[in-house]
């Protein structure tokens, strides 16, 4: 199997959003899961579980812990959905997956599902790089949005890049 880069996993997320017709924030992750035919169910689970993927009649079902707050449920849904999208991307894989799950790959896909880079760039230019507004728009914390914008080079450690 060829080596896959972070760019590949970010592109995987972008293609999933595009296929589902999602082009504006906030990203409706439940609608994305529904588009791919992945049922999501909320249950009260032990406190150490945020969620899980189970096998129901040979197909994936995402379980979310109903006792967790909305932000945790959203991040969990993105992460678990990312695992399934990665599985769908590899024609040699089957569900349930026997191979070791790589959470780093799923984290990259999940991050891009919740706050896609192209949408962040677009919205940042419209809202003058206001990371606080963008955080609310994308449904992430201000710290997370600041980190993404720093990683993307939109904001530097000592100020904002004004290129428009």
Number of strands: 5
- Please tell me what the overall shape is: globular
Alpha carbon gap, first and last residue: 42 Å
- The secondary-structure element order is HHEEEHHHHHEE
- Strand neighbour order, sheet with most strands: 1-3-2
| SSE-based structural type | alpha+beta
Tell me the major beta sheet: 3 strands, mixed
- Give start-end ranges of low-pLDDT stretches: none
CATH topology of the largest domain: Arc Repressor Mutant, subunit A
Describe this structure in words.
The chain is of the alpha+beta class and 164 residues long. It folds into two domains: 1-114, Orthogonal Bundle (Arc Repressor Mutant, subunit A); 116-164. 50% of the residues lie in helices and 13% in strands. It has seven helices and five strands; from the N terminus they run ααβββαααααββ. Strands 1-3-2 form a three-stranded mixed β-sheet. The chain has a two-stranded antiparallel ribbon with strand order 4-5. β4 and β5 (159-160) form a beta hairpin. α1 packs across α4 (103-114).
Q: Could you give a quick summary of the protein structure above?
A:
This protein is of the alpha+beta class. The chain is built from 7 helices and 5 strands. A 3-stranded mixed β-sheet has the order 1-3-2. Strands 4-5 form a two-stranded antiparallel ribbon.
What attributes characterize this protein structure?
164 residues, alpha+beta, Arc Repressor Mutant, subunit A, 2 domains, three-stranded mixed beta sheet, two-stranded antiparallel sheet, 7 helices, 13% strand
Topology:
Layout: H1 6-19, H2 29-35, E1 40-43, E2 51-56, E3 59-65, H3 70-89, H4 103-114, H5 117-126, H6 131-138, H7 142-152, E4 155-156, E5 159-160
Parallel strand pairs: 1-3
Antiparallel strand pairs: 2-3, 4-5
Helix pairs in contact: 1-3, 1-4, 3-4, 6-7
């Amino acid at each position: 199997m060829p080596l896959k880069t972070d760019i590949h996993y970010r592109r995987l997320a972008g293609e999933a959003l595009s296929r589902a017709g999602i082009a504006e924030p906030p990203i409706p992750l439940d609608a994305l899961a529904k588009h791919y035919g992945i049922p999501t169910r909320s249950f009260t689970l032990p406190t150490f579980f945020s969620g899980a993927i189970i096998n129901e009649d040979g197909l994936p079902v995402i379980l979310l812990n109903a006792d967790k707050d909305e932000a945790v449920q959203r991040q969990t849904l993105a992460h678990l959905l990312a695992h399934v999208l990665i599985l769908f991307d590899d024609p040699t894989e089957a569900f349930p997956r026997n191979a070791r799950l790589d959470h780093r790959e799923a984290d990259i896909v999940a991050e891009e599902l919740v706050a896609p880079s192209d949408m962040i760039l677009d919205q940042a230019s419209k809202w003058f790089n206001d990371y606080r507004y963008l955080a609310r728009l994308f449904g992430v914390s201000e710290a997370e949005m600041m980190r993404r914008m720093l990683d993307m080079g939109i904001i530097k450690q000592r100020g904002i890049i004004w290129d428009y």
